[in-house]
Design brief:
Blueprint (H helix, E strand, L loop, with lengths): L1 H32 L4 H36 L7 H24 L1 H9 L4 H14 L2 H17 L4 H5 L1 H19 L11 H22 L21 H29 L9 H35 L3 H28 L1 H6 L5 H15 L2 H16 L4 H24 L5 H28 L4 H28 L14 H29 L5 H11 L4
């Protein structure tokens, strides 16, 4: 447990700094191009394209297949060096081909998501796409190197290197503001130089992020060289395993495509693509800091136990991880929900926009606990080489997301369309997670569910007074008309007030949450305290 605690602390601290700098990056980007408008939505869609393309590769092959394969290759005489060299060579070739193909069909990729936009906005999004799509290659290298480092229990660099990406992006966006001014949200005002500075900055940051990971490679103890002799990589087995996850991700991308096509109807005057991405970034703070930071070291250990056939250990690891992650995400989720208005004020231009955007964040937060639990459960299936079952229960989620998205388009006003789509995604994720847990419980012959549900119930019980305390503090500070919503009219000051307000309201909620858990004698608090201490400076 101590090694898992150290790994989780390293990942948590790195993720925290990475997400905070990422939030600063978003603030500077909003200052450059706004968050509600045609130009900001055009860049958001274009910059999301490489993420969408890469997700198909990463979730479809790397996360589900590569880590278990690398763990097994450790038993080879050379520690897996020859196998991993073949794998890296193959991966690099695949990433180059996919990147070239994506750039060749960039206009059609953009139109898949936003064919209802006016021609000028569509052309701007396409121009951004040509600058952003090379990120696919660098994302691929970053994930391939990072997943190998994780499999070899070198956890820190994969989490810390995005900080460099954020710093480069912040600097580039500030240069953009210095050269061309801020709030450039008029489509007709953009010229090729402006597009190159903004799009090139985004891609340069991803390239640096991947390059920096190479400096950590020597800590794996593996030698790496180009090897085009791909016999022995187990392409047949990898292909079988990856096939189901590839289909799963394709299904997920179709759901995301429908969501984007629905929500872009609000582009220009109401929260749409850019603001949903900003809200998602805030939502990802607790998910990344706790679910991924705690779950990633557990996944490596679960994969090792699964490879050795120790099902009892797998069952215990999964249940313990679910309880531990839930402790953190329930508390942080309720703190962020009651501070939604000041939190969204950080990346909006006015208090009125923050009030309109806050429901989007709250609706995403409804799905925080299910998504965090799904991260753990899904990887337990992957550890046993089962990628077919996750595909099947993901189909349920995809069908629900599509249905909820069209329902939102039919009944929600444009001002709340983004929030309705986000809520539909959260509800679909909840159903998917329940199905996944029940299937895994049957597969493992138990999952300590009574104990786990008791713990999660205890956390939600503590979240009620915590949420009331945080909301009370928000109301006492003036609510949407108070200083936490940034009413001075000075952009930087208003965003700082939003950040401070988020911290004050959230901190009050977290303190009450912890105090109630102490009164309830929650057994998970001891491990949580140790983890928090490890994340402190100097520890």
């Amino acid at each position: 447990m101590s090694s898992l605690g150290r790994a989780s602390a390293i990942l948590g601290a790195g993720t925290l700094i990475s997400r905070v700098t990422g939030l600063v990056r978003t603030i500077v980007l909003v200052a450059a191009i706004g968050s509600i408008g045609q130009a900001s939505d055009a860049f958001a869609v274009a910059n999301q394209l490489p993420n969408n393309v890469f997700t198909i590769i990463q979730t479809g092959i790397l996360t589900a297949v590569i880590i278990p394969q690398i763990v097994r290759s450790a038993s080879h005489k050379d520690g897996g060096s020859a196998y991993i060299s073949k794998l890296f060579t193959l991966g690099t070739v695949v990433f180059l081909i996919v990147t070239a193909a994506a750039m060749a069909i960039a206009p059609w990729l953009v139109m898949l998501y936003v064919d209802s936009w006016p021609p000028a906005q569509l052309a701007l999004a396409t121009a951004f796409a040509y600058w952003c799509l090379p990120q696919v290659f660098f994302y691929g290298l970053y994930a391939l190197i990072g997943e190998t480092l994780n499999a070899k229990r070198v956890f820190g660099p994969y989490t810390w290197t995005p900080v460099a990406n954020n710093i480069i992006s912040i600097a580039g966006f500030l240069i953009f503001i210095a050269l061309f001014g801020g709030n450039q949200n008029v489509v007709d005002a953009w010229d090729p130089t402006m597009i190159a500075v903004l799009g090139g900055t985004a891609t340069l940051g991803i390239a640096l992020q991947a390059a920096l990971l190479l400096f950590a490679w020597r800590r794996t103890g593996l030698s790496l060289r180009p090897d085009f002799r791909w016999r022995g990589v187990g392409l047949g087995q990898v292909g079988t395993l990856a096939g189901w996850t590839f289909l799963m991700v394709i299904a997920g991308q179709i759901a995301g495509l429908i969501q984007t096509r629905v929500v872009t109807d609000a582009s220009g005057d109401h929260p749409s693509t850019a603001l949903m991405m900003a809200a998602w970034l805030v939502f990802m703070l607790p998910y990344s800091i706790f679910a991924i930071s705690i779950g990633t070291p557990y996944f490596t250990q679960i994969a090792e136990h699964a490879a050795a056939g120790r099902r009892d250990d797998v069952r215990s690891d999964v249940a313990r991880c679910m309880r531990f992650v839930s402790l953190f995400v329930v508390g942080s989720g309720v703190a962020l929900a009651v501070a939604a208005v000041p939190a969204t004020r950080i990346f909006t231009e006015s208090a009125a926009q923050a009030l309109e955007a806050a429901p989007v964040l709250v609706c995403y937060l409804v799905g925080l606990v299910p998504l965090s639990l799904l991260f753990i459960v899904q990887r337990a299936f992957y550890a046993f080489g089962d990628t077919r079952t996750p595909f099947l229960f993901t189909l349920v989620q995809v069908a629900l997301i599509i249905g909820f998205s069209y329902l939102a388009a039919a009944v929600a006003p444009l001002s709340q369309l983004a929030a309705a789509v986000a809520l539909g995604q959260s509800l679909a994720g909840l159903v998917q997670t329940v199905i996944a847990i029940l299937i895994l419980r049957r597969r493992l012959g138990g999952l300590e569910l009574p104990q786990t549900l008791l713990s999660i119930g205890r956390f939600f019980m503590a979240a009620i007074p915590a949420g009331l305390a945080g909301w009370g503090a928000y109301v006492l500070m003036g609510a949407g008309a108070g200083w936490t919503a940034g009413q001075t009219g000075m952009t930087f000051i208003d965003k700082m007030l939003g950040a401070v307000g988020t911290g004050v309201v959230g901190l009050i909620a977290v303190i009450v949450y912890a105090l109630v858990l102490v009164l309830l004698r929650a057994p998970e608090l001891a491990g949580a305290t140790r983890l928090v201490k490890r994340m402190l400076p100097g520890r």
